[in-house]
Design brief:
With 202 residues, the protein is mostly beta strands. It contains one helix and 16 strands.
């Protein structure tokens, strides 16, 4: 079984502090050069107009032999097998997302939030092992703003956290039509905005 530990990054939505803007990193920068880059105060567009820059990256992870970066305010997820090459050379998993925040993997499926669209998008690696195919999109309650997704190995399902409504949604991607199969209201958060959680396997 798994113990769900919910965040630490929970706070009153009204009290969210605005990040101090910092310069974006150059398009030719490698991963090691952009780790310390910051965010812009405008969450809608990249003011540089260059998608070789990261713009508020929220998550980085190594899955199935590939590195992934969730580039939140550029509305995309990037991936590469070589993290030392410039960001502009990283491949795009999807660039039609609404401020995604994380990516998870389990049982051959990758899951990414479309935070603004209140969806969990599902992808699989193409047969050529060098591109991704979107296989489905699961609708979540409007306005839930999913922020973090984790694969629960004990049930072979994904859990995604609605930041605005403090609810965990369980999504089964193995079904012929992937869908929400359960949900959990996290009343102990008392209406606070929650951004992340983790599973502790016992």
């Amino acid at each position: 079984s798994a113990l769900i530990a919910v965040v630490i990054a929970a706070y009153s939505f009204a009290g969210i502090a605005q990040a101090k803007p910092k310069a974006l990193s150059p398009a030719g920068s490698s991963l090691s050069e952009i780790i310390s880059s910051g965010v812009s105060p405008n969450p809608l567009i990249n003011p540089s107009g260059q998608l070789g820059n990261l713009y508020s990256p929220t998550y980085m992870v190594f899955l199935e032999g590939k590195w992934f970066i969730v580039d939140c305010w550029n509305n995309r997820v990037l991936w590469t097998a070589n993290p030392n090459q410039p960001i502009v050379k990283w491949a795009i998993l999807d660039d039609q997302l609404g401020h995604p925040h994380s990516i998870a993997y389990g049982d051959g499926v990758f899951a990414v939030e479309d935070t603004e669209g209140a969806k969990l998008n599902l992808y699989k690696l193409a047969d050529d092992q060098n591109s991704f195919i979107k296989i489905d999109s699961v609708e979540l309650p409007f306005g839930s703003r999913p922020h973090r997704t984790v694969f629960d190995g004990s049930t072979k399902t994904f859990l995604t956290l609605g930041s605005m409504n403090q609810t965990l949604y369980r999504v089964d991607a193995k079904l012929a039509e992937p869908q929400i199969t359960d949900f959990y209201r996290l009343g102990f958060l008392n209406g606070n905005y929650a951004r992340s959680f983790t599973l502790v396997q016992d």
